[in-house]
Each structure stands twice: as C-alpha cells, then as structure tokens.
Amino acid sequence: MKTELPILGRESALTVHRYPRRNNETLQAFDAADEYLIEHASAWVLRANARILIINDQFGALSCWASQQGFDVIQASDSIIAQRATIDNITQNQLPSITQLTSMDPFPSGIDAVIMRVPKNNKMLTWQLQQLASITDENTLVLAGAKAKEIHTSTLNQFEHWLGTTTTSLAKKKARLIFSTPNGQPLKTNDPMSYVDVPDFSMRLANWPNVFSAKKLDIAAYLMLPHIPSHSSLKRIVDLGCGNGVLAVQAARNNPEAFIHAIDESHMAIASANRNLKTHGIDPDRFLCEASDCLTDFKHQDVDLVLCNPPFHQQQAITDHIAWQMFCDAKRVLTTNGALLVIGNRHLGYHTKLKRLFGNASVVASNKKFVILKAVNA
Ligand SMILES: C[S@@+](CC[C@H](N)C(=O)[O-])C[C@H]1O[C@@H](n2cnc3c(N)ncnc32)[C@H](O)[C@@H]1O
Question: What's the 348 CA to ligand 1 centre distance in angstroms?
Fold first, then answer.
C-alpha cells in the first residue's frame, strides 16, 4: 500500500496515511483525483500566503500539499476522521499548521483559491456550492475533482448554476477535474435540511445534507426501532454511529432514567441528532451528541447498552473494519452484563465477529436480509 505522494518540483514526497493507522493497511490515503488536483494547482501563480480553502479533503493529502506550498490553508470537512488524519499527516511531514473548520461552520471570506473534492452526496454538493457562491468572485480560482465516474452532467450543471462558467478536464487515471469561474452573483439559497417522517414511531427527523439516509429512514434503523429495550436498569446508553439520532431518540423515550450518548464521525450527523433529540422532547440534560471516531474519546466504562447500525464504507472504500472497531470499543465501555445490540445485513457475518469478541451472540430478530444480534459483556 502506497503512502508516498510524489510532489512536482520537490525532492521528497509527502507521506500520507489513513486514520486511524492500522497494521497491514490495504487502503491508500490518497487517490488519482488528489494527485490530479495537486498537479493542476501546482501550476497556479498565487500571491505569497494566499488563502486556500480546501473542502472535503479525504485524509489530508490536499491540505498537506497546500501547507507545504506555504499557503494559508483553511480546511472544511464534515468528517472528524478526515480532520484527525490531516493533523497527523501535517505533523508527520513537519508542515506548518492549518485552520480546520467543520461542515457546520460558514466558509470564510477573502479566499484566493478553492480546491474541492466533489462530495458523493448531491444535496451536500448543492449546500457547499451555494455557500461558495457567497464568498467567491471572478478573482477566486475554483478547482474541483473526483473519480471520473462520479462527475455527471448534473454535477457540472450544479457548478454552472451556483458559480458560473464551468469546464472540465480530460480523464486521467480515471479522475477528472472541474474548473469554475464564479460570477460573484449569489442566488437565492435552498433549505439545506431534509425531513424524514416515521409515523409508526411519531418521529419527524431533520437531517443536515451529509447525514446518512437523509431523505428516507434506513430500513435497518426502522427494523431496529421496535427492539430497543426499555428497562429501569439502563442508566447509560450509547448510540454508536448515530446518524440523525433515530435510535437515540427511541432509546431516550423508552428509558426516561437513562443518559444517552450519540456518537458519529460526521459533524452534520451530530448536529442533526442534537436537534432531533431536542425536538422530540428529550431534556438536553439527558443527552450528549459528540463527533468522534467510534469511542476513541469516550471516557465512561459503565455503559449498559450500546446500539449500533454500523457503516460499511469509509470515504469511498467498502470496508468492515469500522464495524469491528465499533464492536471492540463497545466491549471496552460496557459494564458487566451490559449489552451491544447490532443490526446488519446477514451476509456481513457480524454473528461470527461478535462471538469471537464477546464469546456469545444471540439473534434478537431477523428477516431475509437483516439480523439483529445481541452480545453481552460477561
Ligand atoms: C449505517 S449508518 C447508521 C445511522 C443511524 N444510526 C441509523 O440507524 O440510521 C452508520 C453511521 O456511522 C457513522 N460512522 C462511520 N464511521 C464512523 C466512525 N469511525 N466513528 C463513528 N461513526 C462513524 C456514519 O457517519 C453513519 O452515520
């Protein structure tokens, strides 16, 4: 697995790792789109200390490059994993520090150039472009890139609509670039929120654009809802990978004595869960929503119940290592006899994983596609 990102005109390459670092990592921390973006931006002639806004950097390759060039780098990201990866990679390469903004912060003004990884999620792209429209003008360089197969005519139309004249590059190593010249005329903006109704459970969930399943309740979450326990012994409950907080809301309702922790690596998920817990009448003294890579920063070890509908993607890659990390972290924070309740596709084989880790795993419910499993911390 390659960690050296060659930089034109520099003798030494940048070393870029994914986060968290894993032994025997098979996935790379940068891809052809990052390389193409860097190659193109290397030809820019910018003033000293130019302010560069980097949006959706995956593990910090773009930010490291811009920092190495001596630019004033502002990175905007929805992912705490991307942010942590960037800090580690900046430190490892002994580069000047950068400013990090979350996806909930407004983009700053006075930007000379923008480098953007096109987000997969169309609603997120709209939200980011409409914000860009308000801070750019014809003097701002706007460069975006992605895998060629992720750039559609509709993607280009969005850039054209929100910013101005837009062209694209040829594909190179299956990556493509987008060039826009902002016309500095912000348009009427759209509401970034999507709402999901769950009438059986009297819920209306608000979702910031980058939230998982923001337009439709995830089927696995829906199947999990009736199996969330209600018991006076449940005092501390974690919704791990909470998304919009659908499981956290139901857990809080079922267990009025319990304190609820909603954890996700997406800042927009955390903002949505926070809002949804509040709007569903849960007292803010009873819950905490925090961005974290699984339970890395979690200090409690007296958790009675962990609810988990694990992800099987990291950035663009399909992987089950996050589910495994979530199960290991759950085991670490559960009290004796505390339980982990997991839902997953049958074919993911969570049963075997939980048995290996906990020594037990029982089926709570199942259908043709999904299975809900419970593992108890003995
Ligand atoms: C399948 S979704 C489940 C969302 C929600 N609980 C539901 O049931 O609809 C998985 C969630 O895990 C989050 N996630 C992915 N990697 C994570 C990590 N390393 N740490 C914490 N959350 C993560 C994703 O952002 C996503 O919201």
Answer: 16
Each residue's pLDDT tens digit, 246-292: 999 999 999 999 999 999 999 999 999 999 999 999 999 999 999 99
CA distance 82 to 363: 35
Give me the domains of the chain, ranges plus CATH numbers.
4-180 (3.40.50.150), 194-376 (3.40.50.150)
User: Residue 369: pLDDT above 90?
Assistant: yes
Q: Give SS3 for 5.
A: strand
For residue 20, the one-letter residue type is P
Distance 186 CA to ligand 1 centre (A): 33
Q: Dump pLDDT digits (tens) for 210-250.
A: 999 999 999 999 999 999 999 999 999 999 999 999 999 99
Range of 12-21, 70-79, 182-191 with top mean pLDDT? 70-79
Tokens coding 51: 């302010």
N-to-C CA span, the chain: 38
For the Cβ of 289 lying below 6 angstroms from any atom of ligand 1, the answer is no
Of all protein residues, the one whose alpha carbon is nearest to atom 4 of ligand 1 is 243
Amino acid at 49: N
What angle, 0 to 180 degrees and rounded to 10, lies between the N-to-C axes of helices 246-254 and 267-279?
40
Cβ(235)–Cβ(257) below 8 Å? yes
Torsion, Cα of 271, 114, 64, 314 (10° steps): 40
Question: At 347, which amino acid appears?
Answer: H
Question: 36 and 175 in contact (C-beta within 8 Å)?
Answer: yes
Residue 41: DSSP 8-state: H
Question: Length of the chain, please?
Answer: 378
CA distance 22 to 86: 16
Q: What does each C-alpha distance from 4 to 11, 25, 86, 215 come to in angstroms?
A: 12, 14, 15, 39
In the chain, % of residues over pLDDT 90? 90
